[in-house]
Amino acid sequence: MNRMSTYAPETSLERGIERLRAQIDARVATWFSSCVHCGLCAEACHFYAETGDPRYTPIHKLAPLKKVWRQEYTFFGRLARKLGISEPLDEQDFADWEELVYDACTLCGRCTMVCPVGNDITAMLRKQREGFAAAGYAPEGLKGATRRTVEVGSPMGLTWKALEAQIRHVERETGLGVPVDREGADYLALLSSLEIMGYPEYIGAITRILHRAGVSWTLSSRAFEATNSGIQIGDADVARELLQRVFDAAESLGVKNIISPECGHAYTAIRWESAGLLGREVPYRIIHIVELLDELKRAGRLPTAGRTGVRVTFHDPCNLVRKGGVVDEPRRLLEAVAADVVEGPDSGVMNWCCGGGGGVSANERAEGLRLAAFRRKKAQFETLGVEAVVTACANCRNILEEGIEHYAMDVEVMGLTELLAEYLAEDGQGDAVAG
Ligand code: SF4
Ligand code: SF4
Question: How far is the CA of 32 from the centre of ligand 2 (A)?
Answer without folding.
Answer: 9
